[in-house]
Amino acid sequence: GGGGGSVPLFDVSRRPDVTLRVHAGPVSSLCMTESALYSGSWDCTVRTFARSEGGGDEELSLASTMSYGDWVTAVAARGRHLLVAAGSEVYCHDQATGQVVRRFQMLHEGNITTVEG
User: Fold this and answer.
1) CA distances from 22 to 35, 64, 74, 75, 108 (A)
2) What InterPro entries would the database entry show (predicted)?
3) Residue 110 and which of 10, 18, 64, 73 are 20 to 30 A apart at CA?
4) CATH value at residue 37
């Protein structure tokens, strides 16, 4: 991620050629699946970008924005779920709908800084 709210995209065989300037705060976490790129930020949001092939190159389009009451510090995808750590809470979303399936609160004192699906 980037401190200026941007997400630079690059292919390891080429130079960076795309930067997504979509967050109002620093980007704190990224997670890529076969169908989407998720970016979490200190602006208290997770942005979902749909991945598609176009003209031989991969294209990303903003599909949705999920908002939280605290900084987003981590995102992780596993199966059909997306886990999001925001402050001291963890949200479990259905990736297909974006709906919260489960919310974990008061797991411990302080902010959660990482999650694994």
Assistant:
1) 19, 12, 17, 17, 31
2) Quinoprotein_ADH-like_sf (IPR011047), WD40/YVTN_repeat-like_dom_sf (IPR015943)
3) 64
4) 2.40.128.630
